[in-house]
Amino acid sequence: MSTNTIETLQFNCTTCPSECLLTVEVERDADGAVVEVHSVTGNRCPRGDKFAHQELTCPMRVLTTTVAVSGGDEALLPVRTAEAIPLELHAQAMDLIRGVVVEAPIRMGDVVLPNLLDTGIDLIASMDIE
Amino acid sequence: MATSDMLDEREEAGTAASVPTQAFDVVVIGGGPAGMAAALAAHNAGAHVAIVERERHLGGILRQCIHPGFGLSHFKQELTGPEYAQRFIDQVRATDIALFLGSMVLGIDSGEGAAASASGVDETAGDAAVHTVTLMSRTGMLQLTGRAVVLAMGCRERTRSEIKIPGSRPAGVFTAGLAQRYINIENLKPGSRAIILGSGDIGLIMARRCTLEGISVEGVYELMPYANGLRRNVKNCLDDFGIPLHLSTTVTRVIGHDRVEAVEVSRVDESLAPIPGTERVVPCDTLLLSVGLIPENELSVGAGVELDPRTRGAIVDQSLQTGVPGIFACGNVLHVHDLADNVTTESERAGASAATYALGGGSESNVDAAGPGCQLTVSPAGIAGYALPGRITAVALTKLNFRVRRPVDAARVRILAGDEELFAGKVRAFKPSVMESFPLPARVIQRALDQGVSEIVLSVDPVEEA
Amino acid sequence: MAETLDIAIVGAGITGCAIARQLARFDLSICVVEAANDIALGASKANGGLVHAGYDPTPGTVKAQVNARGCELYGTWAQELGFLFRRTGSMVLGFNDEDRAHLEQLRQNGLANGVPELAIIGPERIHELEPRASAKATCALWCPSTGYVDPFEVAIAALENAVANGVTFMRSAPVEAIEVAGSDDGAACFTLVTPAGDVRCRYLINAAGNGAADISHMAGAEEFQMVWRQGNIVVLDKEPRALMPLYPVPTPVSKGVIVTGTVHGNTVITATAAVREPGDTQTYATDVDALLTGARKLVPDLDTRRVVRAFAGGRPVIKGTNDFFIGQSAVVPGLFQAAGIQSPGVASAPAIAERMEHVMREAGVALHERNDWDPIRRAPDDFDRAPLARKKELIEFDPAWGQIVCRCETVSEAEIVAAIRSRPGAVSVEGVKRRCRAGMGRCQSGFCQSRVMAILARELGCEPSEVLLEDAGSWLVEGPLKGVH
Description:
The complex is a heterotrimer. By secondary structure, chain B is an alpha/beta fold. Chain B has eleven helices and 28 strands. Chain C folds into four domains: 1-86 and 147-225 and 320-379, FAD/NAD(P)-binding domain (3-Layer(bba) Sandwich); 90-144, no CATH class; 228-318, D-Amino Acid Oxidase, subunit A, domain 2 (D-Amino Acid Oxidase, Chain A, domain 2), CATH 3.30.9; 388-466, Arc Repressor Mutant, subunit A (Orthogonal Bundle), CATH 1.10.10. Chains B and C meet through helix 1, strand 7 and helix 5 of B and strand 18, helix 9 and helix 12 of C.
């Protein structure tokens, strides 16, 4: 039986432009899965602590990409997930988005794909297209 | 574009009566984030404002910057580039700011000829020259007159030629911004297997965009021993996707006759020279270059604006006025920014200053406000790459911007006048990727004046750590 | 099998185009056969554009004769063909007494070659003629007849004029074999085998530049051994005033690193000379450094950071001689050679064409003047250079003139469309660039490439993925990313 290991990681918090460099002590099991985050230091506000825990369990990112437009004065509509979704879903989401075509006109905030991959998060338009 | 031919045309532009003219208080050149913020600020100050924009849409380069990371300081929430732009577009559209879209400015004339030709303008209203902006579009030639002009044309990307990458000249070498346009605007895939040279923010962002769109990124190569972009971008664009970042390494040869077939990369020494024997050939069909931005000031130079060789933008005073009275500059045409939010803040200042100038009848009132006798130049020293504004003409709290030339863990900002240190900031880390902002108190400026110096020095000096 | 033409000219470089233009005045059927998909893609492209005056070549050589004569003819050619030519004069700068002796030698050489008005001048006059010339220069050879052109513009102007007078142009037609046979009337008859179709002709003109040895070999004529004397060239951004051509004292193999203005207001530094593998058009860091260093020696205040482009090409040099070979083949009658046209090929082009006419006449080729020959080629409208009133007029005529595509060089959509629709028109992004300068400026098409691509796709009726940067294989983009499964 192998025992859990304690690892010290350094990464930047990306919640705000300060980009605090976090030092995180994390305990992993034999498979590398995170058992517990022991400590987070280097953060200048509580959001850094929250970010570190999230980052080690399930990193979340806003996905931004484009979808094809028909009948508009642009070929592509920039889109984003309304909130961050798990990073590990991004590739799958891209496969889904590749074939989508939306009709112009479109307003910023319009829902392009509701509840993307059952995340509960919508894919929304980032810009108006006439 | 300052060829002799262009100069001839500008002379002619001033006297050509056949071109229709419209008069404004403030003419803003460029409809990107800088131009929109400046126009809105000038409008809010009561000025009659026009925006001239080359593209059919407002928004500038933000339209293709579809990634998040915008608005964190200005809107206190994370927006994508198009969202950030759309908020300003909506604001501009809600005003009576005149929009000249799909219009290209050919020249700015600030001479006496311009004032004479500006029919309908009461020439007795002030002593300041009226600037004439000659533009063209599909509907014809047009001249706009403005008591003030705001330059907000943004910047362009450095090219392969400027960094002198040797080798062949096949298709497949793109600046990162052009590739970004192909992918995000044109719906075209620029290649399948890419190498990115330069770890500036655009390069990092493009590494992620390419990966998401099915273009494999073999690696990001960086000449310097550190990443040039923001930490968040290294993390979110490279680390998230396992894309390697090769520091102190550069592209030393492009290979391929018709289309890129590979690039040769080499390690570089401390003086950034390639180390013989470290060459490695990396197969790829696409080379993206993210090797720096250059303010696009050909129009400014044509208008007689003097540039700072360090920033390659205009030399301005604390109100962001250039050496040509009534011409202001802001955003990336003034100096290359790290964040759009900073562009907005700066441009609002430029727009407000331009409105004050235009509505106050020109230089007269401005000189009064500044108080007589305040004429200081600001120079960078130590590891500060530049200092902006380059001139201070008023005793007031002044925002100084600068960037360091190399990263340091511990350094401090010092303001020097002659041999005397007027001010010393606290010791902290500095990075070249960050545009620093430093408030210079009025009393420091006054002390410099009291000493009778004509120059103050902004010095960033590394300090030995204990 | 196709009809038998009177003349086929192999190679649409500046030499082939000039010859085509020269012979178009005669009652002859002529076809220019080009291996690449556009003209002037070989040595003509990799050129600094100087119209050297001709004081350099050894007196008595073919080169010496055609160089001085070519320089003289440029005025007329520019006028008739509507290309930009500036006769600025030039100086060869000397920095010491040894240099002065060289300059005197050059002057004597020039006098022997018939170069007019050569003079040795001192520092004061040097400064007066070009204030930016190095203050360290103690003497100079002043040569008022030197000038410069855009070599591509000369070639396209000549070929456009030839085509307007009935010459045909066949592109993407590399000659793979040449069959030589006697015809019914006893004269030779050549059949050129190309992937674009065979071409039969009574007379063959070899103007294939770096391919001239291959063509001669295929025809069973002279076996030229060619050397690829490679040169790197650097283009700097525009200056408020274009520099006068400034030369260093030449070396035995090259004119050295020359700094010159261009017709578009840029500065060009040309060129290094190194024997390299045939076909090598790579730039080298060592060469580029040598150019910038050499240039600063002549013009100390030159801002060498402002590099717009660096490129390279090979001079087609016949091994064992530094001279041009212009004449009928001694082995295969009916084959006329213009081989080994290295430097100063651009300066010599009009005179090479003139000499070719003379050689053919001497050989008994029937040259009857046509009565409908038009020597004039009108340059396309150039928005950037047009006066304001003309600009206004152009946009009123067609709104596409008001749509600027290339902002660095102020090139409108109308000019790009005209470049594609002209004959012979552009079929690639670089072809557009060479014709109307879109993408030639400081941003090197970072802004306009996608827009030029879209116009090319529209005009040529193809997909963006089929648009080429230059020749076959130089695709720019793959297909669409979105809206596809």
